[in-house]
Specification:
The structure holds 2 protein chains of 2 kinds.
Chain A (H helix, E strand, L loop, with lengths): L2 E14 L3 H8 L7 E14 L3 E5 L6 H8 L7 E6 L2 E2 L6 H9 E4 L3 H4 L6 H11 L8 H11 L16 H13 L5 E5 L7 H18 L2 E6 L2 H7 L2 E6 L2 E7 H6 L4 H9 L38 H5 L5 E3 L2 E3 L10
Parallel strand pairs in A: 3-8, 3-9, 6-7, 7-8
Antiparallel strand pairs in A: 1-2, 1-4, 4-5, 9-10, 10-12, 11-12
Helix pairs in contact in A: 5-6, 5-7, 6-7
Chain B lengths: L1 E14 L2 E14 L3 E5 L6 H8 L7 E10 L2 E2 L5 H7 L4 E4 L13 H10 L6 H14 L5 H4 L9 H13 L5 E5 L7 H18 L2 E6 L2 H7 L2 E6 L2 E7 H6 L4 H8 L39 H5 L5 E4 L2 E3 L13
Parallel strand pairs in B: 3-8, 3-9, 6-7, 7-8
Antiparallel strand pairs in B: 1-2, 1-4, 4-5, 9-10, 10-12, 11-12
Helix pairs in contact in B: 3-4, 4-6
The chains are: A alpha/beta, B alpha/beta.
């Protein structure tokens, strides 16, 4: 297995700069400082060719930020991203531009990612013409082929996005991504806004396309049942850090990190009968002031004194990685 | 004893594109302490059913027929002034977005004390005490201090708890909850579900839980009603419906949910999409998407038949036979 995408200690900080008055207050001796959020804190993992890697976590864990950095939509604050061995960290470099064409992103809300004033044919065909994959003259036929691939009637090519239902719009979003013949798709909550029956159609479409076009996916979602269904391997994030990486079977059968255990435990499931919901305490802390040591320790039922002091390292053993002191010498 | 009985409820929207029968003949009943899961996809009429019970449907929508019997009173016929006395008092609603319930410029205590004193002559002190105990009940830490906060100072999950606490203030007999956990994270959702479950058990409050998520209903509801195109197509005990669904739509809906030991396999999908509610097909509304439909389904709309105690189906060709259902 060769790694198609490799992330090495990729980080991203968002800094809220001081405004004029705060700067003035600071020069006068007030204790104000720039606030900084570590949205992604040294994330390292690899995606092999043909693999589907699921990225899960709750809101604010940094999963979308990570996806955007891989897609080249957000600059990286630290670390390196390699695509097929080539460093693409610097988004302005030629290598990165070439790679970016092969990495495409499908967004959550198709209505805000499709230009409402353009016809479907232009939305899907524009990039392909620009990149010389087809000519303006042959664009119609090219687009028709792609629309058929995503299960849309090519006759729809002359319509505008608002004339479609949510599920169809998501198919247009997928068609646009496929139009430049990518190898790697980043799906950022791509089915979260769809109804259950339409969700199933789109999940099936993703799996058909994977087989037909030999695609690799980074599938970002907060929905564990979707991830369990579609992914080969799962990366779990909490407050900007990766806490566990494992194959889907291993992760769902025997999660090792207490956070992963809690997450899997709390997914409402069919066939479980009347559930008594067991809950983990508290809420996700503010990323502006994350707790010291392990970010999860204030909510963790197993936390010990070491968890408050020391940041756990993601350690690899037997094909799976977990960042928890419980698996690394104890919490004392 | 039944708290609520809805008979043949019809709520129509009179739009330029035609009359949309958002709710078209819905029947159900609810006992004390019972949790009913009202399930359906967008546009199925599940939320409009909930809004109709509280008479909160805005024009161009209107309840055009049926009875909503709440403790022997027909809410559909009640004068607006009396309806106001019931809302927030004996019948409460929890919305998907707590910011719809909370006024952003008023402190939580102002809003909660107002909600108590609007329905009952009590001192501000007593109302405040009641607010504190309601906040404590939904698991808000140090409720007395948090009362002084504004809604924006709470996280999404905490705001939803405050909205639930307001719904509980006057000890309602019925709570209508419209997708209250859909916007929340999994860990927060399960905290809220756990609290709601306990409350319904302890207070005997009847609960209508409106959601698109069958998995949530599976763990929470005693009975479930599946809606499609403005009608209930299947209803019964939650376990019975989920283990042996009888309507092809329920079967499709259950098959569409990923993640029960069929990793990587194709999901059973329902073909096509939800119908245009202004132009429903003449027969069964689900017929164009149904694998089991025949000529009769396309021309003749099925009625709802009780096939077992508390188990009813709206289908010409139900997938379970009467008396055999679990």
């Amino acid at each position: 297995m060769t790694a198609m995408l490799e992330l090495d200690a990729v980080s991203r900080q968002f800094v809220k700069k001081l405004d004029a008055i705060e700067k003035l207050a600071k020069t006068l001796g007030a204790s104000v400082s720039e606030s900084c959020v570590n949205a992604v804190d040294s994330a390292s993992f690899a995606v092999a060719r043909g693999e589907v890697v699921g990225l899960v976590g709750e809101s604010g864990c940094g999963k979308s930020t990570l996806g955007r950095m891989v897609a080249g939509l957000l600059p990286v604050s630290g670390g390196t991203i390699r695509f097929e061995g080539v460093d693409v960290t610097d988004a302005a470099s030629e290598d990165a531009k070439t790679a970016r064409l092969r990495i495409q992103m499908i967004f959550q809300d198709p209505m805000s990612s499709l230009n409402p004033r353009m016809k479907v044919e232009e939305i899907v065909g524009e990039a392909a013409v620009y990149h010389g994959l087809t000519t303006r003259r042959e664009m119609s036929a090219y687009v028709a082929g792609i629309l058929r691939q995503v299960g849309l009637d090519p006759a729809y090519a002359q319509r505008f996005p608002h004339q479609f239902s949510g599920g169809q719009r998501q198919r247009i979003g997928i068609a646009r991504a496929l139009a430049v013949r990518p190898d790697f798709l980043i799906c950022d909550e791509s089915i979260a806004a769809l109804d259950v029956s339409i969700q199933a159609q789109v999940i099936n479409l993703f799996q058909d396309l994977r087989r037909e076009l030999d695609l690799t996916y980074l599938f970002i979602s907060h929905d564990l049942s979707v991830i369990e269904h579609i992914a080969d391997r799962v990366v779990v994030m909490y407050l900007g850090r990766i806490v566990e990486i494992a194959s889907t079977e291993a992760l769902f059968d025997a999660p090792q990190h207490p956070y992963t255990q809690a997450l899997i435990d709390q997914v409402p499931r069919l066939g479980a009968g009347r559930q008594t919901y067991r809950t983990i305490k508290g809420e996700i802390p503010s990323p502006l002031a994350p707790p010291p040591g392990c970010h999860f320790h204030p909510r963790c039922p197993m936390a010990g004194p070491r968890c408050q002091r020391e940041v756990p390292v993601l350690r690899n053993s037997a094909g799976r990685s977990v960042a928890c002191h419980l698996h690394d010498g104890g919490t004392q | 004893m039944s708290v609520l009985e809805v008979h043949n409820l019809q709520t129509h929207f009179f739009t330029d594109a035609g009359v949309v029968k958002a709710v078209d003949g819905v029947d159900f009943a609810l006992n004390e302490g019972e949790v009913l899961g009202l399930v359906g996809e967008s546009g199925s009429g599940k939320s409009v059913t909930g809004f109709s019970i509280l008479r909160l449907v805005d024009p161009p929508g209107r309840v055009v027929g049926g009875h909503i019997m709440f403790r022997g009173q027909d809410l559909a016929q009640l004068p607006e002034a009396e309806m106001r006395r019931l809302r927030g008092n004996k019948i409460a609603m929890i919305f998907q977005d707590p910011m719809m319930t909370l006024n952003p410029v008023l402190r939580i205590d102002t809003q909660m004390i107002e909600a108590v004193r609007a329905h009952e002559k009590v001192s501000a002190k007593a109302a405040r005490d009641r607010a504190i105990s309601a906040l404590a009940k939904v698991g808000i830490p140090s409720p007395a201090e948090r009362l002084d906060a504004y809604p924006h100072q709470f996280s999404g999950g905490m705001r939803q708890r405050v909205a639930i606490a307001i719904a509980l203030l006057n000890g309602p007999d019925l709570i209508v909850a419209d997708e209250p956990t859909t916007a929340l994270d999994v860990t927060i959702q399960s905290q809220i579900l756990a609290e709601i479950q306990e409350l319904a058990r302890d207070t005997g409050t009847a609960l209508i839980w409106i959601t698109h998520d069958l998995a949530v209903v599976a763990g929470l509801a005693d009975r479930v009603a599946v809606m499609y195109a403005g009608r209930i197509v299947e209803t019964g005990q939650t376990d019975a419906v989920l283990t042996a669904p009888g309507h092809p739509y329920s079967v499709g809906l259950l098959g569409s949910i990923p993640g029960h030991g069929q990793r990587g396999e194709r999901l059973t999908q329902i073909p096509g999409m939800a119908p245009n509610m202004a132009h429903l097909p003449p027969g069964c509304a689900f017929a164009p998407r149904c694998f089991n439909a025949d000529e009769r389904c396309r021309s003749d709309a099925p009625g709802i038949d009780e096939i077992d105690t508390g188990r009813a189906l709206r289908c010409h060709h139900p997938l379970i036979t009467p008396g055999v259902s679990a």
